[in-house]
Amino acid sequence: MRFLLALAGAVSMLPTLASAQAPLPVTRSTMVPFDVSPFPFTGISPRTGKPFLDVTEGERRGRTARAGVLWEETTYSDRRVLLSIPRGFDLRRPSLIVVFFHGNGATLARDVRNRQQVPRQIVESGLNAVLVAPQFAVDAADSSAGRFWEPGVFAQFMREAAGQLARLHGDARAKAMFERAPIVIAAYSGGYHPLAFVLAVGGATERVRGALLLDALYGDHDKYLDWLARRPEAFFVSTYGPLVKPQNLEFQKQLTERGIGFTSNFPPHLVPGINAFLDVGEEVKHNDFVTQAWSADPLKVMLSRVPGYVRR
Fold first, then answer.
1. Is the pTM value of this prediction over 0.70?
2. Shortest CA distance to 75 belongs to which of 61, 96, 92, 95?
3. Where in the chain are the domains?
């Protein structure tokens, strides 16, 4: 009798377990404060070799920037991260994590979510992929990487992201999958600088399968070159307009000098070892680049060309 009762209980749980693994019926998005985040940051800036917060006014601390002093409490204290899991996401299928680094003068809600429509672009890419987008300097002309300057911190950030994504998904078993899922990092504009340091010292290099730059290759060429030399199986795509055309041409020259091949055509598939550059022309506006470049929704277009992670 006890055996029959136990068997009946086990059978009664089968629909619950099956439904927990079923594809998500709706997109789930949230903004969550992380313990490990780019900011606050109180260390030394690698750009200057001096304390990042170099201004004190009473109890306030700030940083000297191009436009004057940027204060810690308004610019460098937001720990939130935008997370999004698209409708149809399926734990049973190969999964990808897309990490998005915003540019200058941005906030997660106003710009990444609402204006640039990054979560929607991931949904429409057709990938079985989730979004992780940290807040850097809030609404400021600043490309600082904060704690992502520090060795190994990006790997810690991604471990925390796995737990947060599992909570958002609603199935605790998702955490282990998110902890090992491959990563593609997309950087727009000033996001190039945090991306360069993540690739150089972030500590999760073996998981990063590709880097997508949207009008973003302003500098840090040495770090990108070293990463490509260390990770020849990764893919790298830089799309650009007139603002960063000289830097992209210089980087192509540096690749040639190192014997690293590349193409100037947009490949149909972003497979391991592809290095590609796409000049989108003179008419594209930098501020609109994430939503309108050589085509509408360029991030969606690029992600849709990553094979092996189709969402059904």
1. yes
2. 61
3. 26-35+78-303, 42-75
User: Which residue from 199, 211, 218 is spatially nearest to 149, judged by alpha carbons?
Assistant: 199
Distance CA 126, CA 304 (A): 6
Q: Does domain 26-35+78-303 bear CATH number 3.40.50.1820?
A: yes
Distance CA 141, CA 245 (A): 21
User: pLDDT tens for residues 20-52?
Assistant: 578 999 999 999 999 999 999 999 999 889 999
3-state secondary structure the chain: CHHHHHHHHHHHHHHHHHHHHCCCCCCEEEEEECCCCCCCCCCECCCCCCECCCEEECCEEEEEECCEEEEHHHHCCCCEEEEEECCCCCCCCCCEEEEEECCCCCCHHHHHHHHCCHHHHHHHHCECEEEEEECCCCCCCCCCCHHHHCCCHHHHHHHHHHHHHHHHHCCCCHHHHHHHCCEEEEEEHHHHHHHHHHHHHCCCHHHEEEEEEECCCCCCHHHHHHHHHHCCCCEEEEEECHHHHHHHHHHHHHHHHHCCCCECCCCCCCCCCCEEEEECCCCCCHHHCCCECCCECHHHHHHCCCCCCECC
The tens digit of pLDDT for each residue in 61-119 reads 999 988 789 999 999 999 999 999 999 999 999 999 999 999 999 999 999 999 999 99
